[in-house]
Every structure is written in structure tokens, then in C-alpha cells.
UniProtKB/TrEMBL annotation:
Stated name of the protein: PTB-containing, cubilin and LRP1-interacting protein
A cellular component annotation (GO) from this entry: cytoplasm
Pfam families: PID_2
Biased composition (Acidic residues): 209-225
GO biological process assignments: negative regulation of D-glucose import; negative regulation of insulin receptor signaling pathway; regulation of cell population proliferation; regulation of mitochondrial membrane potential; regulation of reactive oxygen species metabolic process
Higher taxonomy: Eukaryota, Metazoa, Chordata, Craniata, Vertebrata
Top-level taxon in the UniProt lineage: Eukaryota
Every PID domain range: 130-192
Disordered: region residues: 198-225
SUPFAM superfamilies, per database record: PH domain-like (SSF50729)
Native organism: Parambassis ranga (Indian glassy fish)
Coiled-coil parts of chain: none
Length: 225
């Protein structure tokens, strides 16, 4: 039913005062509120709020994972696994079954986070985490594509058995892959230094032994701890 503007205004004032009385803790007089007729209010244009990406990391394309055998890993040990992941993704693209895999790889001491982003590459939809102490090997040296970074992760199953999974991501270029390898090595150093200082790892000699390791970042094989 239509009401004059004055009656609508009076009703709105009464409703507002009622809500404010409920929300106000101290019983004080309400300040005088000056209302304008709806026709006199100019609506300002607003920018839609979007959830911005606040995670610091490297933009990558997640290729997936594959279980591999063995517990001792040397240079080139991820090559066949990476070839299989690249071929599998190419086949999925041909068949039109390849879903969006824009991701953000965040490497920090103790934990690596893989944020799976939405189609626009902005908001994080899901996140996978990997404990640094359970990463057995990482490398950015692959013949098939030099811009691929891979790591081997010790996955613990529900029955307490374990398997070694090779994960791979495709970076924007070769330099980005090398940076990931370097960041992972720095995460190894900080994590194991902290674990040694806390007594969670037996100190076999000086704490500088790990920092002075001459292995290159892309071919580092830290102990599983």
C-alpha cells in the first residue's frame, strides 16, 4: 500500500531508534538525525569488492603428481615422472578434460603451500600443504622442459605406510624454476637449523655442516628427518 513520504520517513525513524536502543549498551539520548527525502539522496557509484590474493609466492601451473619407487634419489631421478605428467596433461588438453590448474606455490620454512586459484587466477579455492621435513628431493633440471620444478614428497597413508610422490609445476620461464629451487633450499636450511636447535634432530658435528653443504639448490637431497 502506498504511503506519503512523510509517513514513510516517520516509520523509518521509529524503526531505526528501536534498533539503536537494542544495540546501545548505555542508556543515553539518541543524537538528532537529519533525514532527507529518498528523492534527494544521490547514490554514488561504488567499486565492487573483490577478494585480492594476499599470498606471496610463485605463479605456476600444477601438472599433478605420480608415485615413484625408491628412497635414494640422485640427479635425473624425476625426469621420467615429469615426462609422464607432461604427456598426461597434453592428452587431457587434446580431449578437453584439462581443468584449470592456475596455482601459487608458496615456499616457507617448515611448510610449502600450493594454492589452487580460481579461473581468473585471483582467489585461492583450495590449498595443499607439504611439510618441508618430508620433502626428500627437489630439482629444476629437466630435459623435457627447463621451466619445470619438481619435488619428491614422502606421503604418509592412513595405515602409517608411506609412498614417495613426485609433484611437478610448470613455471613461466627457466629462471622462475631456478628461483623455486633456490627458495626450497633456503627453506630446507632454515627448517633443519631450527629442528637441530630444538633437539629434534641429532647434532652430528657443527650446526654449520648443513649450511655449508656444497650441493646446488636444484639437486638437493636432504635427509627426511
Amino acid at each position: 500500500m502506498w504511503q506519503p513520504a512523510s509517513e514513510r520517513l516517520q516509520h523509518f525513524q521509529t524503526m531505526l531508534k528501536t534498533k539503536l536502543n537494542v544495540l546501545t549498551l548505555r542508556k543515553e539520548p539518541l543524537p538528532t538525525v537529519i533525514f532527507h527525502e529518498p528523492e534527494a539522496i544521490e547514490l554514488c557509484s561504488t567499486t565492487p569488492l573483490t577478494k585480492s590474493r594476499t599470498h606471496a609466492g610463485y605463479k605456476v601451473t600444477y601438472l599433478g603428481k605420480v608415485t615413484i619407487s625408491g628412497t635414494q634419489f640422485l640427479s635425473g631421478c624425476t625426469e621420467s615422472a615429469v615426462v609422464g605428467l607432461v604427456d598426461r596433461r597434453a592428452l587431457a588438453q587434446q580431449q578437453g578434460t584439462c581443468h584449470g590448474s592456475n596455482s601459487l606455490l608458496e615456499i616457507r620454512p617448515f611448510q610449502v603451500r600450493l594454492h589452487h586459484l580460481d579461473e581468473r587466477g585471483e582467489a585461492s579455492v583450495t590449498m595443499d600443504t607439504y611439510q618441508v621435513a618430508r620433502i626428500a628431493y627437489c630439482t629444476a633440471d629437466h630435459s623435457i622442459r627447463p621451466n619445470i620444478f619438481a619435488w619428491i614428497y614422502r606421503e604418509i597413508n592412513d595405515d602409517l605406510s608411506f609412498q614417495m610422490d613426485c609433484h611437478a609445476v610448470e613455471c613461466e620461464n627457466k629462471l622462475e624454476a631456478k628461483k623455486l629451487a633456490h627458495s626450497m633450499m633456503e627453506a630446507f636450511r632454515k627448517t633443519f637449523h631450527s629442528m637441530r636447535s630444538d633437539g629434534r634432530i641429532h647434532k652430528s658435528g657443527s650446526t654449520d655442516d648443513f649450511a655449508e653443504d656444497s650441493s646446488t639448490p636444484e639437486d638437493s637431497t636432504p635427509d627426511d628427518g
